[in-house]
Amino acid sequence: MPRLRFETVRDLLEAFPIAERLIEVEPSDAPSLQFLEGLIARGELDRAVGFCAFLLPRREAVWWGCRTVRALIAVPSRDEETAIRAAEEWVRQPEDDRRATALELGVRGNSELPSTYLALAAGWSGGRINMGAGEPIPVPPHQTARVVRAAVLVAACRVPMEQRPDVLRRCLEDGIRLVSEEMQDA
Questions:
Q1: For 23, which of 3, 44, 49, 50 could close a Cys bridge (C-beta 3.0–4.6 Å)?
Q2: Residue 121 near residue 65 (C-beta atoms within 8 A)
Q3: Does a structural domain hold residue 1?
């Protein structure tokens, strides 16, 4: 029988303690997919976006973020398109040179653009980062989900308020499909 990456909310929070504070989720033994669907049903869409980003494995989270940002932004600027494509290229071929290219675009990018966060999500999907004069350290495992969440929420601000709930629900349904595909592949 296929298994979900994190069977319960508690499993997810044990793997990513930052999620409890970041998306205001209490530890519970609720099944994670059911919990996500409940957030959506109650209209807690911002929290659902964050939970979905942490629920998906890194590569799938970046892919979902790219698909979602494309759905939320009708016409990306040239810079946005470049950053989104770099993240998508890493998803298609998760090689270190593609990750480094995405990271460079993310680091140099405009922090007001959701595409910058997508490039960072791909760039922070692994490897090491320099934190000053010391040795590079491994990228914290929560970074990808954290910036995918940011990308989606920043992009959602560009959608007219009356359309935002329906658009986000469709994007979250796409995330649930990805979670379900992950379960079938397990």
A1: 50
A2: yes
A3: no
